[in-house]
Automatic annotation (TrEMBL):
One of its GO terms (molecular function) is dioxygenase activity. CDD domains: ring_hydroxylating_dioxygenases_beta (cd00667). It comes from Alloalcanivorax marinus. This is Aromatic-ring-hydroxylating dioxygenase subunit beta. Keywords: Aromatic hydrocarbons catabolism, Dioxygenase, Oxidoreductase. The keyword Oxidoreductase applies. Gene3D superfamilies: 3.10.450.50. Residues 20-154 form the SnoaL-like domain. The keyword Transferase does not apply. Belongs to the bacterial ring-hydroxylating dioxygenase beta subunit family. InterPro entries: NTF2-like_dom_sf, Rng_hydr_dOase-bsu, SnoaL-like.
Length: 170
């Protein structure tokens, strides 16, 4: 991907507007996931995107190991297709909550950003909701044709234990 200049990273946006644009992006991103629209989820990423779900321990130790690791939009599409058409798992409802967004334009034209997230789930055959994950997004955004796109998203979960059913993207 061709680098853009820092003043092009957030064309015409001041710091507050940039944070607001990323909050809107995250709202749309989470809504796609909560609605089960995984084909739409893929479109939030650049062609060369990297998507990783990893534990806080591994992240802090600078270990690249991720519970989920997708490099490139092709792998993201494969993951979405596998979930939608081939995987067998209990039906569920997911709800994402994202807060405390920050954004920092970089000299290479990208935007380093992040936010805290909480993910709840309700299995359709269970009476109560459970807290599935708590963590933070560590992101790198670019503008492509005037739209924010994720070049990298690392979902770093703080839970020491996860349910064994991490199926959907975070």
């Amino acid at each position: 991907m061709e680098a853009i200049k820092k003043d092009q990273a957030a064309p015409g946006l001041d710091q507050g507007q940039l944070v607001q644009a990323i909050e809107r992006f995250n709202t749309d991103y989470c809504r796609a996931l909560d609605d089960g629209r995984l084909h739409d989820w893929v479109e939030f990423f650049t062609e060369d995107a990297c998507y990783v779900v990893s534990g806080r321990e591994n992240h802090d130790a600078k270990l690249p190991v991720g519970l989920v690791y997708c490099e490139g939009k092709g792998m993201l599409k494969d993951r979405a297709l596998a979930i939608l058409e081939t995987s067998m798992f209990a039906p569920r409802y997911l709800r994402h909550f994202v807060t405390n967004t920050y954004a920092e334009p970089q000299d290479d034209g990208t935007i380093v950003a992040g936010a805290n997230y909480m993910l709840t789930q309700v299995l359709m055959d269970q009476p109560t909701a459970t807290l599935h994950q708590v963590g933070c997004y560590l992101d790198r955004f670019v503008f492509e044709n005037g739209e924010l796109k994720l070049q990298e998203r690392r979902a770093i979960y703080d839970n020491l234990l996860l349910n064994n059913d991490l199926v959907y993207p975070v």
